[in-house]
Automatic annotation (TrEMBL), chain A:
Presence of keyword Membrane: yes
Domain of life: Bacteria
Protein name: Uncharacterized protein
Record's keyword terms, sorted: Membrane, Transmembrane, Transmembrane helix
Transmembrane annotation, as ranges: 25-42
UniProtKB/TrEMBL annotation, chain B:
Protein name per UniProt: Uncharacterized protein
Superkingdom in the source lineage: Bacteria
Species: Niastella vici
From TrEMBL, chain C:
Cofactors demanded by this protein: [2Fe-2S] cluster
Name used for this protein in its record: (2Fe-2S)-binding protein
Lineage: Bacteria, Pseudomonadati, Bacteroidota, Chitinophagia, Chitinophagales
SUPFAM superfamilies: ISP domain
Rieske domain: residues covered: 233-327
Length: 285, 148, 355
């Protein structure tokens, strides 16, 4: 008789054959749901250890430097050999924007040139793998105090490491060091471009065979911003030809020229840097 | 559903049977590979040959090294995992006292090996009265204490 | 017609169906987020939410896309089809959460409008390895949105089934876009091949199911009717049609359902007025042809739904000559009454029935 059973949804109960089959289907779906959920969840790449102290403001006193990227240098003391220990904290703005705008506004408002002055800033810290950055937001009244001009001993130690070609991935340090996970790679590409467009200084993340990383700041040959120029190279393997300068606890790459950054491999129908596509994009804007 | 519509469905799926594998495999093959590169930092000094002491923690391994003459000493710090504090500096303090009484050894950053030149106070006998503190001077907090 | 007669309202099985949809979604999301949190103490909730809803949506999409061919291969899957639209709308809602949070996370608080950012951040549309995969997800979401807002039966009637069917064909495009959205997105970041293998397995399953079901159906459609006279076509022998059931014939373009009811044969258009369900796969219940998909009913005598319902389908003229059934494929206007063709039952069979 089961061959002749007929299912109608509005009947209060499905005929036995249908009910039994549906039960089997539900069990199969149950197994599928859990298996897929567990497998996909455990197969995700390990999340980064970045920290973003969202909602927590910290006061930091140090010397502000406008170049090569806006940053504040904080002393912690001198070691056995009399060398100072310090940390240089690049500054970034709220959302997907750099800190330049806010700092300029603050300087105008207070009629001071903050460069090389000891100041106290209030902001949100984000950090990972030994690098620390601070977000300053106009809404938090970030400039707490401005003190004297810093002494000579606070000026950055620079050491030229010559011209080198270095391979890595360009990331936006705000997302990478704390705000987003993943803050790198293809899924995050659009966001990194948006952040770098907004003025957050681009960083080249370099990884060695052991998986350890170093992070170098990217600027133009004369220290000018490279934000627009690096946009199309973000989140993809690139080789950067640059003059390398160890600048206190950060390494700065002074990219030789516009052709100093080039993609490594990848399938490309048209070479990046070609005008056709970016022109369309500009028109949409 | 009428006959042409059913045929259209079949045509679409035949097309998808070709396009889907092409797209899926193509995208997978095109996945970019990131190259490995020698790092510029940390610029660690040459290790001294003898290991006098060793302490292993989840995130790092600490060695006290020396030359055979015991005239030079080195603190070697192997940072295994990314730091999750704003800053991390190493201090040597007399056991039980605070960081202000300590001697700054140096700052550690990204993963890798750090070697700090230290003085004879790191001779094993003398070390028993001292301890190392890993200190975050931004949040002014002690991250870890290491006893030898 | 018993008291059980109801249109497709909010009935018991529909409620059970919806309850299961909800339970399965909740189960999936909790599993994914909990396992992520356990395995990855450094996870961020935003990412867990974006990924759990994304993968749930694509899982639901696979289920939705396999129900059609499964019911065609095995009728026992019909209960799943009954409320497929709610599954579609649920899938859209889940994908909308994923899309909205992605827009917020990746495009908000920037120096341009998030929607401009979506299309202009990454402009490497010429590259496979750098392709702006988010735009693909966006267009898929737009298609799902159009399908979801037109999901009420009201729209099916207002838009005319033709436009609506055309709209529906876009679900396949959307499926392709979603697959490429995943392949050109996270798959190019993840080092573990699990997601890649699952996408491939999912696509292989769907393609196989659809090709198997599709060829089966098209073969049925392609049967050629050779015997013709005076506009009538010979279709089968009268005893081939089981009582209270039908046989389906595709003459020219349209499928026609030939029902046997109280030993008379009646032919009506095979396509249900509700959502195009196959009436010929239904049965006669309480004297009404009942659609297998959602149970709309039509009287065999005139192709009309019993009052107060107003649906009407085309009817056809049937004649029986000896044991041969002849059908005129020219449809009568919808709801036209015509008498059934009485089946001449051989003596032998009568004896069997008496026993
Ligand atoms: C406005 C529309 C959309 C946007 C902006 C968008 C954006 C994104 C982004 C940024 C990712 C990468 C997330 C990550 O893992 O870090 C992603 C992944 C994904 N998306 Fe979408 N998406 C959209 C629509 C859709 C739709 C409609 C679907 C499917 C029904 C979908 C399915 C997926 C899937 C399955 C993933 C992979 C999830 C994973 O990370 O494991 N997306 N999407
Ligand atoms: C939005 C309002 C919707 C309505 C009224 C609706 C109704 C229908 C109907 C009547 C069919 C049968 C078509 C046929 O076989 O001739 C169908 C098929 C289908 N619908 Fe929907 N649906 C809706 C939404 C969705 C959504 C949001 C999805 C999701 C992705 C979806 C996916 C499908 C699929 C995949 C088929 C397959 C057709 C086949 O079996 O070959 N539908 N739908
Ligand atoms: S009752 Fe819904 S299609 Fe026939």
């Amino acid at each position: 008789m089961s061959n002749n059973e007929f299912y109608i949804g509005w009947m209060p109960k499905a005929p036995g054959g249908f009910a039994r089959h549906t039960k089997k289907v539900i069990i199969a779906l149950l197994i599928l749901t859990i298996t897929v959920g567990v497998l996909l969840a455990i197969s995700q790449k390990k999340f980064g250890t970045g920290q973003f102290e969202f909602g927590q403001l910290t006061n930091i006193t140090g010397v502000y430097f406008k170049e090569p990227v806006p940053a504040i240098k904080v002393m912690s003391g001198k070691d056995l050999l009399g060398r100072s220990a310090y940390i240089t904290i690049p500054l970034i703005g709220y959302g997907k924007s750099g800190a330049d705008g806010i700092l300029l506004d603050l300087e105008k408002l207070q009629h001071v040139d903050l460069n090389k002055k000891e100041i106290t800033l209030k902001g949100t810290l984000l950090y990972n793998d030994g690098k620390l950055l601070m977000q300053i937001d106009a809404a938090d009244n970030p400039l707490v105090s401005v003190n004297k001009t810093a002494g000579e001993n606070m000026l950055p130690l620079q050491k030229e490491l010559g011209e080198q070609t270095i391979q890595g991935e360009i990331v936006d340090p705000k997302c990478f060091f704390g705000v987003m996970k993943p803050g790198e790679g293809k899924p995050h590409k659009d966001c990194a471009i948006r952040c770098i467009s907004g003025g957050i200084p681009p960083v080249l993340k370099v990884t060695n065979k052991e998986g350890d990383c170093n992070y170098y700041l990217l600027v133009g040959a004369h220290g000018e911003k490279m934000n627009e120029a690096v946009k199309e190279f973000v989140a993809t393997p690139v080789a950067v030809k640059a003059k390398v300068v160890a600048y206190d606890d950060w390494v700065i790459l002074y990219v030789t020229d516009q052709k100093g950054i080039s993609p490594i491999a990848g399938w490309q129908l048209v070479k990046p840097g070609s005008q056709a596509i970016s022109c369309i994009a500009r028109c949409i804007k | 559903m009428i006959k042409p519509l059913r045929k259209r469905h079949l045509q679409i799926w035949t097309a998808l049977a070709v396009l889907l594998p092409l797209g899926i495999i193509g995208a997978r093959i095109a996945t970019p590979k990131f190259p490995a590169q020698t790092l510029l930092q940390p610029d660690a000094a040459k290790p001294l040959p003898d290991i006098l002491k060793q302490r292993e923690k989840d995130n790092y391994i600490v060695f006290i090294r020396s030359n055979p003459q015991r005239s030079a000493f080195q603190l070697e710090w192997l940072n295994k995992n990314p730091l999750t504090w704003p800053s991390a500096t190493i201090y040597k303090v007399p056991k039980g006292s605070s960081v202000n009484k300590g001697i700054l050894i140096g700052r550690i950053e990204s993963r890798g090996t750090y070697r700090f030149t230290v003085d004879a106070a790191f001779e094993p006998e003398k070390l028993s009265t001292a301890q190392l503190i890993l200190y975050d001077f931004i949040h002014e907090q002690i991250i870890d204490t290491i006893n030898f | 017609m018993g008291a059980s007669y109801l249109a497709v309202g909010w009935n018991r099985q529909k409620k059970i169906y919806d309850w299961f949809i909800f339970a399965f979604c909740a189960l999936y999301l909790t599993t994914f987020i909990a396992v992520t949190a356990l395995y990855n103490p450094d996870y961020t909730f935003e990412t867990a939410l974006i990924r759990s809803t994304a993968t749930l949506a694509i899982l639901l999409l696979h289920v939705i896309l396999s129900i059609g061919p499964l019911t065609r291969i095995n009728k026992k899957f019909l209960p799943l089809l009954y409320n497929r639209r709610h599954l579609g709308v649920t899938m859209f809602s889940v994908a909308l959460i994923h899309g909205s949070f992605s827009m917020l996370q990746f495009h908000a608080l920037g120096n341009v409008n998030p929607f401009v950012s979506l299309f202009t951040s990454n402009t490497q549309y010429n590259s496979v390895s750098q392709f702006p995969f988010q735009a693909l997800g966006f267009f898929a979401l737009v298609i799902f949105f159009l399908m979801a807002i037109t999901s009420h039966d009201f729209w099916l009637h207002t838009l005319s089934p033709k436009i609506w069917k055309a709209l529906h064909m876009f679900v396949y495009l959307a499926y392709f876009l979603v697959i490429m959205h995943v392949m050109l997105g996270v798959v190019q970041y993840e080092t573990n091949p699990v997601l890649f293998v699952m996408v491939l397995a999912g696509a292989a399953t769907l393609v196989t199911l659809h090709l198997v079901a599709g060829t089966k159906e098209v073969r049925k459609d392609n049967r050629i009717f050779k015997l013709k006279k005076e506009g009538f076509v010979y279709v089968c022998e009268s005893q081939d049609v089981p009582d209270n059931c039908a046989k389906i014939f595709c003459i020219d373009k349209e499928r026609i359902a030939l029902f046997r009811f109280e030993n008379k044969l009646y032919a009506i258009h095979n396509v249900c007025k509700h959502q195009g369900g196959p009436l010929g796969e239904g049965q006669i219940i309480d004297g009404c042809i009942t659609c297998p998909w959602h149970g709309y009913q039509y009287l065999p005598q005139n192709g009309q739904s019993p009052p107060p319902f107003k649906e009407k389908v085309s009817t056809y003229i049937v004649t029986v000559e000896g044991s041969q059934v002849w059908l005129n494929p020219q449809p009568l206007p919808e709801g036209t009454e015509r008498s059934g063709a009485a089946i001449i039952i051989p003596d032998k069979q009568i004896i069997e029935n008496v026993q």
